[in-house]
Amino acid sequence: MASAASSWVILGKAPRVTAADADADLPPGADLSLALPAPPRIALLTISPRIFPGRTASDNYPSVVAVDPTGLILFHADQGRATGPTIIDTPRHQKFCWRSFVAGYFVLDATTASALPLPEPELILHAGHLGLISSPGGGGHYMVVELQPILGGEHGTLLRFSSDVGEWVSKGIHIPLPFRQLAPNGAEAPVLRVVPLPPGKVLECREGWGFLDKYRCVRVSGGKLRFLDMYRNRNSRGAAQISVWTLADPDSTEWTLEYEATFAEICNDASYKATRLPRKIPVLGLIHPTNPDVVYFFLDKHLLGIDVRARKVVECEIYELVAPPSKHVEAE
Asked: InterPro entries, from UniProt (predicted)?
């Protein structure tokens, strides 16, 4: 793994997959490679067909699920077409279903260029509910966790895989949320706490399903949790705008509005005009991890870094991504 001078990087969700006879694209014996250019250039993961043996298609392509600062990557790569039903038979979960593909999940180590398949991947219900965290004690130890809510109830299951234990362990938990489907886009007694979104920002069940990540995100920036909203967000004059809210500390239960700016104000600035890009609403990419004033957007094959508070473009680069075979652009 080549190191970047920056303390953070932008990682593309979809990897390059080397051809079956082209492992020369990877170092000898490596399952993957990852170069880390300084942002706003985008880092691209390259994987061996040993990880993803199929051909990419609109309904089947490998992707990054979660990343830990230690260099561990939680990765989803199905292992070909299913030839029979999926059967799950555990003390807490019994299920018989038909899935199009054989599930496959891996923990990739960018430092050692190795890939470890997770056992019993069929136990995972939704990649969008997965998380990865490394052990504070180091040593390459980690935990993969999935929140599995039960529709129609206030309870669910916390499914956990620890590298120390080597197997999945499940635990029932209380989920203090009203009934609704959760959209994608290791304590002994885990307790979930819900912080409501700002007034007027809660959506109806399934509203924005499948594309909301292009207009909203909740991320850590500058050491605090930020909620960024562009979805049907207009000011009193009807102008489309972007708003950024902050959760002051982990015990806060209310969001504080940090700043708002309309896209017309941004496009009218000389820094935006200098890019010669069209005046249209871009696709949300990410918020800068250390400077919450800067937000990145995708627009016409460019990655724009905009200081939203100042209404100025601070970075503009043509980006290179491995696009999933879809007519839609995905922002990660």
From this structure: DUF1618
Partners of residue 101 on adjacent β-strands = 81
CA dist., res. 37 & res. 303, Å (int):
14
Cross-strand bridge partners of residue 156: 149, 173
Report CA 144 to chain centroid distance, whole Å: 15
Closest by CA position to 53, among listed 116, 109, 101: 101
What is the three-class DSSP state of 162? strand
Cα–Cα distance for residue pair 186/143, rounded to 1 Å = 8
Question: What is the model's pLDDT at position 188?
Answer: 47
Q: Is the peptide bond before 62 cis (omega within 30 degrees of 0)?
A: no
SS3 94: strand
- How far is residue 81's CA from residue 17's CA, in Å, rounded to a whole number? 18
Compute CA 171 distance to the chain's CA centroid, rounded to the nearest angstrom: 24
Q: Can you tell me the distance from the alpha carbon of 201 to that of 161, in angstroms, rounded to the nearest whole number?
A: 34
Please state the separation of Cα 252 from the chain's center in Å. Answer: 24
CA 227 to CA 216: how far, in whole Å? 8
Ramachandran bin of 60, using left for φ above 0, alpha for ψ from -120 to 50, beta for the remaining angles = beta
Q: Is the pTM of this model over 0.70?
A: yes
Coil, strand or helix at 266: helix
Reported as a single tens digit per residue, the pLDDT across 181-225 is 544 444 445 566 778 888 888 887 777 777 788 899 999 999 999
What digits encode the pLDDT tens for the residues 38-74?
887 888 899 999 999 988 877 788 999 999 989 999 9
- Higher pLDDT residue, 98 or 230? 230
How is residue 27 written in tokens?
């170092």
Q: Residue 322 CB: number of other CB atoms within 10 A?
A: 18
Q: How many residues does the chain have?
A: 332
Measured between alpha carbons, how far is 63 from 75 in angstroms, rounded to an integer? 6
